[in-house]
Amino acid sequence: MSDHIPFALQEEIMKRLPTKSLLRFRTVSKAWKSLIDSSRFVVDYSVNHTHQHHLLVRYSPPIGLGQKYVSIVDDEIFPEHKCSLPDPASEGVGLTIVGSCQGLFCIYTISSDPDSDIVFGFGVCPHTGDPKLVKVNFCKSKRNLDSITFTPWQVEVYTLSSQVWRSIPTINQPRNSVQLLWDQVVIDGFIYWLAIDGRTTGFLGYNMIVSFDMTSEKFMEVSLPATLAQAHAPNKTVVISKLKESLVAVELVREAEKRVYGVWMMEDGVPNSFTKLFTINLPDVSIQRVLGIRKNDEPIFATRPDDNAHDVFIHELHSEHISYTRISGNGTLYSAGSYMETLLLLDH
Question: Is pTM beyond 0.85 here?
Fold first, then answer.
């Protein structure tokens, strides 16, 4: 850029450039490298929602072992711009994606402990740009015909800057009867988990959402509409997702030989304010599950064919058109999450 352009204006221009361009610009001058490497610029760049969206799709191939990862640019010609990514796991090691935030993905090595349940949450503090990991450890509830016994949560927080785990006060935690599920999303500095509260409804419990403020490190319970809260039943399932930086709950209702999905969105980040956006009802398509939602509201789903190959499709709501993404798996492992490229961890 010309020396005649004020440096403050140069900074504003660079905040809107792709990350690959910025990585090259770090070699142009000491002033640009110092700016791009600064924590303030990295945080400002990460919260700029004008950057290009991507979708990371994880699936198991129809033939062979392991997992496949594909990154797809979420643009007007979706899914043409896609590239395969290396599997981060060693052979024979099971992994799951804890969550993603500001272009970073947290991956967890799966293990099993029969005496406790551990659920993780991952996000980036919006004020400091510091990646943060939350670990919730709660003993499995003891149930019998007369009573249910719940034990208190044990919550620890890890920040990349400190590189240590520390406990947080129990006064900031939900009731002991609430148990988190692995289903989580991160929006505007909050981690949201799908949860079940078995306090009053016996063995099934009812659905709810628990949020964690990454700045204050406090939990909050979020109520769902009655039809979603009562969906913890044999013919109903609820998952959560993200649409345009808003929390979305996807309700599955099994009707005879088909599955119908209802999509609900929390309005303006206000807890307990969910509105139903649309229903996915495709009589001629057997949907296995909804994997996620594109930035233009189009749901991404995997089908349930007669053979072992499950295909990933996009449903264009207005035209009712179904588009094939040319991604096929065996149906045992599917996920799709949105992200934007980031400068976080540039100096790590």
Answer: no
Residues 29, 31, 34, 36, CA torsion sign: negative
Distances (CA, A) of 33 to 3, 26, 330, 344: 16, 4, 46, 15
Q: What does pLDDT average to over the chain?
A: 78
The residues that bridge with 339 in the sheet, in sequence order, are 54
**Segment-wise mean pLDDT, segments of 10 residues, the chain, 348 residues:** 79 87 89 88 75 77 74 76 68 70 80 67 88 84 53 87 89 80 88 83 72 93 86 74 84 76 80 82 69 77 62 70 73 70 73
Residue 215: predicted pLDDT:
92
Sequence-distant (≥ 6) Cβ neighbours of residue 223 within 8 angstroms: 208, 209, 229, 271, 272
Task: Report strand pairing: 219-222 vs 206-213.
Answer: antiparallel
CA 296 from centre of chain: 17
DSSP labels for 84-146? Answer: EE---SPTT--EEEEEEETTEEEEEE----TTEEEEEEEEE-TTT--EEEEEEEEEPPEE-SS
Distance CA 201, CA 167 (A): 31
Which amino acid, one-letter code, is at 284?
A: D
Angle, CA of 266, 268 and 271, to the nearest 5° = 50
φ and ψ at residue 17, rounded to 5 degrees:
-90, 155
Q: CA-based Rg of the chain, rounded to a whole angstrom?
A: 22
Pairing of the two strands 299-303 and 287-293 = antiparallel
pLDDT of residue 114: 47
Helix (H, G, I), strand (E, B) or coil at 5: coil
CB 300 within 8 A of CB 291: yes
- Exposure of 302 by Cβ count < 10 A (0-12 exposed, 13-18 middle, 19+ buried)? buried
Report CA torsion sign: 36, 40, 45, 46.
positive
